[in-house]
Structures are given as C-alpha cells and as structure tokens.
Write a structure and sequence with these properties.
Strand 6 and strand 7 form a beta hairpin. By secondary structure, the chain is of the alpha+beta class. About 45% of the residues lie in helices and about 15% in strands. The relative contact order is 0.18. The protein has an eight-stranded mixed sheet. The chain has a two-stranded antiparallel sheet with strand order 6-7. The N terminus is likely disordered.
Amino acid sequence: MKKKQRVAASWRAKLEQLVSRLARGNKGAIDYLIANARAVQQTVQGASLDNTDISPRAGARMVVNLSSAHVPAFCTAHGSGDPIPYKNAYDVEQIERAKGQHKPVSVRRALVDSSLPLPPGQSPASTYFGAIELNGTGIRFYGDVCLVLSEDRVSPNTVVLDRNSYDVMRAPVSDGVELLPRAQQTGARSAILRSWSGLLRRDVGAIVAIKALGTHGPLERRLTTGQISEAARDDEDYVEVLRHGSFSPDDLQEARIASSEAARDALVTARFPVSPAPRLEALIWRDRREHAERALRACGVPVNVVTTSGRIKG
C-alpha cells in the first residue's frame, strides 16, 4: 500500500514542481498557473472551465486511428463473431503465419514492447495501443478515421505513458541507452518507460496538465478548452494508452472524421462532373470514407465531423 501511495503522488508532484519552476521570476503568473493546471484536470475529467459538473460524453477518451480502407473489415469481423475485431501487429503476424506467410513484428517494435511496464496478465501480444484525445480526431498518421472508445470500456487501471513509447528508441533517449553494455539496455529501457508511466484515471489529468503548461508556459491568462485539447494531443505528440485486449464497434462512443477530410471529399464530389477532374487517389479515398461511414453506422456507431477543438455554442 505504501508503494502505491508513493506512485500515486508522483505525477501530482511533477505537476507541482513544474508550476513552481515556471513561476520563478514571474510572481504574477503563479495564480494563473495553478488555475490553469486545475482547469486542465477538470476538462480531462469531463467538466467545463466554469462548471465542475461532469458530462458523461465529455472528457479524455482513448482513441485509435484506423484507415478508412480497413474500417469495413473491422465491422465485418465483429458481425461474424470474430473475438478480435481490431487487430494489433501480433494478431496480424499470427494470421499471416497461418497462411504460410512471414510478417513478423519489427525488431525495434518488439524491443520496445518487451520493455513496456505492463501489469500482471498483460503481454505485448494482448496490448492494443491508443492515444488520449479530448475533442480532436486523433493521430492522422495512423489513419483517417478516429475510433473513440467509451469511457466505461477502458479500465481505469489501464497503463498510460506521457508520450509515444517508441521515443525510447529515438535520440536523445536512445543515445544514452546505446552507450550501455548490450546486456543492460533492456533494463534501461524498462526503467525509462516506467518513469513515463501512470494509470489512466489516477494520473492522466496531471500528465495532460504538465503537457499543457509545458506548451504554453507561465501565461497571465486562462487556457481555453481548445488550447487544452490541442496540448493533450499535439500532432503526433500524445499520451499513449496501453489497453489490455481488443475492442469492437460495441465498445465505441463514436467515430470522428476531420473537417479537412470532409471538405476535401465534398470538393471532389462537386468537381467530379466538371473540369478539372479530381485526381484518382482523391476519388478512391472519398469512396473509402463513404464505405467506412456506412459500415460504422450499420454497426450503430455515430460518425461525426470535428470542426473545432474548442467549445461551440448551439
């Protein structure tokens, strides 16, 4: 129990240390830093900046981005009773092996996964990666459709990392690890990943607050919902979620598509009968997104176009 109490205080302590450090030499900022740290944590929990009442559909969620080309297969797998509708790299490796083909998980990915701070009973093969998102559409690099898991379908004790676990293989972190004897490198990576880790419900508020204050610094003004949302997931800089077990359309709160993608598809449709004709790949991706949206709606998953990361009044 004592060990758990020390761990529970660590991210809160890091946040308090950051506030103190940012306030040095700027006494007028301390009140704003404290208020903004509190506002970030409220927003992550699903409350607004001006009201502590929690909305059941707001707050931080685990999201997984999937290419629209693969969304119909995800929905079909669920409909056919596949126990693993969403597949990770280890699932794909097993499927390919059964076909007599060889598609192993990359060596570097396997090195990272073997060092992850996973709880008892969870292995790299049973781990499904996601990101923490507030109001946006996830990490476009991994796919154009953002699948948002319902809050009650992700255990509050799920392990999160304050960054992409693959950063342990990148400079400057990797530079220090690679100076060590090879026999010590796995242990070093494990220690680093543990220092980046926390638990979803307990720590994600402080983790996102650290990201937000680190991004915006000691401002003498309040952070907005949009600024908090963008700090939580800035491009490919995100809080990583290590979920135990796959998921299906039944586990989704909604799916999200970026307004830029929706606008591009609308432009392609409008230009199709006239000159200049849209590029072939633009037509292909428009059709893929249409098929993906149709498949998701058939499974009962709402599909929404995200137009802003901030609040809207309607």
